[in-house]
Protein 1
Amino acid sequence: MTFSPARSLLAFLCVASLGLLPAGHASACECIDPPWGMVGWWRGDDSPADAASGNSAIPAGGITYAAGKVDAAFVFDGVDDVLALPVAVHSFMHEDVSIDAWVKVDDLSVSRAIFSTGDFRAAQANTAMVLYVDTDGTVHWTIRLNGSDADTIYTQSSTSLVPGSWYHIVALREFQNETDGVRLYINGAIEDAQPDIPDLFDLDYNGNGPWSTRHASIGVYQLEVTSDIYNTGAGVGAWFDGEIDEVELFDRVLTDDEILALYEADSAGKCKDEEAGDEDDDGVLDDEDVCPGTLFPDAVPTVGLGVSRWSDMDGDGVFDTIWPSSSVSPMPFTIDDTAGCSCGQIITALGLGGGLTKFGCSTGVMKTWVAMQ
């Protein structure tokens, strides 16, 4: 990226504005590119649409919109307003997951749910997650595995939210990190971290299994979805009262630097123009992607991955290889290294074929391509 004095000044003013600008004063922040791996983005811009994966929320109870932290936000009345998320959202929540949102709560006479999925009731053998604000203003990120109190992970903020003020909240789970895999952040700073517990269930939604009928939702605790879209069955509650903006879901763990950047972007938020997007969802933004339309897993190799050959076989953004046991394996190539190009696309771009197509890109071809970027 080319150094720009104007951009640097704006970045400085953005950070300075986070606690110094008068109420109602516009932020000096520039928007930032959305972090890669975003699979849900409910902006609240006068629409329940999902700008990341097309899984639009189903508004119920009378959801309205008002000026939010970043453009417009969802407004919840604390009685029956909710955004029910499609079943497909569950498929993004197995193993690593990050959730973030800007939140302004207006009333704390009862607990207020920001995001929830699954069923927390006793003897419900399912995986459940809830991010909520308690009556004392503390934020809680709780994960209950296997319907068991013994397998429930609790995190709690030391910061208490003040009604009427905006806060940026991030909750994440780093699957099977038994040191600090479940973490909670407010305004870019970590508040609590607890070890993850290896889950015994397949976390993919199957209609009857670990997620039961309690769908993911924004603004209520353990929403039950039926043919009537939703109902207030047993255990449903903690209706949010206030505004929620820029709700995002990632199928990976955000880094501390990314979390801080999301907070410091302030009211500028994430860039919403198409140039800052990632249309092929390969983790490389469109304005930096040399190979649009990348598909993973890669169709190459057609026969099988050869020794010292490279290809992203599982679509995780890291090129796989089989390295001779007699030598030390090198650092793997990533999709960032190749500027968004798969092995198959590299072969096409360089006019190659033959054995590369059958067995994967050689180390020499990979190094040549990376050096060209």
Protein 2
Amino acid sequence: MALLQRRTQRRNTSSRTSHEAWPTSEALSFRELREILHRMPKIDLHRHLEGSLRLQTLTEIALEHGIDLPSYRTEDLRRYVQARNDEPDYHRFLAKFRLLRRFYQSRAALERIAAEVVADAAEDNVRYLELRFNPIALSRAQRFPLRDVVEWVTGAISQAQQTHPVTVRLILQIGRDEVPRVAEEILELALAYRARGIVGLDLAGDEVNYPAHRLAHIYQRARQEGLGVTIHAGEAGGAANVRDAILRFHAQRIGHGLHAMENSEVVRLLMERNIALEVCPTSNLQTGAIYSFSHHPLPDMLALGLRATLNTDDPSISDTTLTDEYLVAVTAMGLNLEQIRTMVFNALDAAFLPEVERASLREQFTAWDTLQILEEP
């Protein structure tokens, strides 16, 4: 209540808008800060379906389908799925997906996993989510047709939105090691399912060993057809990969992009093209892209006026939520609540939405910004 009184006093004695009357993080206890950040309406532009499975769901699917696991106890399974206690390493982090891909055993399993991602996002007060998935990865365990996988996921996401207060759009992902023929098939599926919520195309995977220039024409066509393009770059690779993502792949957003900060020309390119950066701090630490949160370039990105956003990447693997990522940004990187708000609206501006839908979402976020953050829960 004391926190509410302080906030109310600030609001009553200032003619500024409510977000400018937010208390400083220094004036808050850890519990109060987490409470505010959890209640804040959020946008996550960079979340992988394959990295968002609940541990309990993994156990239940494994028992149902006879999947051989090191353990069927949820807590024992944690160390095989999550990276929190691992030595930071990019390829070790990616290896977690090899186990997770064994769980896509049936249509029901895929639909359950997709629906639970929506429910978990809503529980964290994520109000707009762009969820990406690789149809190849989801189809591999049982050799499902790619179109069936896309049909099942889009259907489950659509149904889940009816019972949870979150808007979800989908991005199809292509692996850097994919052959062009299959990559083109994924693009065709993205185009065919635009009416079912697919809004973009992503390139992901081993950035170190697969530059993927042979796939650039697919992303150029995606842009021409009106799809959004986001490219994982500058996470394990250098600034040159970010430049290639923009110039060769016509990226509007960069997944991670940390190493772009090492090259002033690439930073200038990001600024000139107004490219959004999908930053995922906990994942960045676990992959070894940064040595510690205090060395993360996010504060410098914001200081330069880059269009940085905060995201989760793989909540299950990283054992994180978007509230946790906001909390890390404040407590470990020294950002303030106004900077967190700036990144929420950066994400809104960078969302792969038609302008009419973006304007509607902006009205909602502006209303929440005014009413929801500062009121007593």
Protein 3
Amino acid sequence: MSLISFNNILANYFTDLGLIQEDFVMIDVGCSGGIDPVWLTFGENLFAYGIDPQKTEIERLKKDLNHKGIKYHTYFIGSEESEYGIKKTKFHKKSYMNPVFRTSSSVVIKNSENAKAQSNPIFENVTENWITLPDFIKENSIKKVDFIKIDTDGNDIEILHSISEQIENLGVLGIMIESNFVGTADKNQNSFFNIDEIMKKKGFHLYNLSISKYSKVALPSKFKYNIFAQTEFGQPVQCDLVYLKDGASEYYNDFFGKELTKQEVLKLACLYEIFKVPDLAAEILLLHKNKFDTDFKIIEPLNLLTKKITRDKNIDYKTYIENFQVNPSSFLPGIKENSENKINFLQDRLNDAKDDIALFELKNNELLNNYTQLEIKNKELEVTNIKLNDHNQNLMNEINSISASRTFKLAKLLSKIWKFIRFV
């Protein structure tokens, strides 16, 4: 499931009206493939920094660059030494808490020199330059960051720790980070639990996530994409997490000790839509409507969001809300949805029946095969029995023949004896 909504109207709407007057600054750590096009909706206000250790990939991205606000840099982000109170440890493959080495993708990659887990090979023509994220920000004179994406296929939690004390001062509104569901309970593990704890302490809520499943090689699933990685079924192993500040909460000021600016409200509304929580976008605009000039009609972006989620160009926000208040039952799954659910249910039952039939046919074939084998054995026994009968008959004939011969000879002998007795 994609975490991003690609048909985003608020950023374009606010930019066209000139409401977003500050730069939207984002940092992409692990930018292989390029800065996501979704950020281009901020137009000329976008300033993005892409960082990746693959020199060939960064050179390619620089050549294809078509936005003056995007810059690419070749670095390993992090440190080769222990930092930020985290002791780096190797995640042993042969570990009870690490089932990854038993997955189909892991085995394929291990057994095939040509198999690659990613679209860009890791550690192929990479830089030797390391830098921490705080040092990168200082080196590039970055004073404010709205959004940070971290996806290094490594210890992303170390990068998060390195920047955690600067999150508030930099004005960070959101963070997207890759994490694992597997691993130990150690604080140094790049686990969902550890990352979620850090983000909660900093006042961020989880608003979206994607789950990557990996099947075991004992019964491999089809791969989800055209790479040897995620599979259609299997254990949840990895996830991408989207954390954002809750600017629509009436207790925001109590937690952070300050109010959101109008520019932060607009940017958060855009981020909520981008990461598929348009309800929160509507909520923050309504809560902070007094921050906008009287000539700005807050109802217009609400109308746009309503048309987007309903896919109905003729409905407006007011009508939509009135429908909910008067008839909330209309928001239950309709006839079409119920029919689709029934069809899906029947399809599942049909698939189950097909599986049962296939199993029955398999067992029936086994029984037929066993019956055939028994018939063959039975015929073999019949042939053997006939041979035994023939053999027994031959023996009886021989015995009878021998018996008759001995009887004849005995009769002749007795006759001679009798003649001799009579003669004497």
Protein 4
Amino acid sequence: MVFLTENIGTILVGLFVAGVCALIVRKLVRDRKRGKTCGSCDGCAGGCGERRTRL
């Protein structure tokens, strides 16, 4: 119990960082499934898979 009370700040920051990383990975996986990435095109200069709108 002493370990937890002495390191609660480090533990909370670590959990926060791990949560943010999990959300980033989740978004990358979802984008890849929806075809919003450039994983299969050559060079990717044209922004394949993206929907671009001009203002």
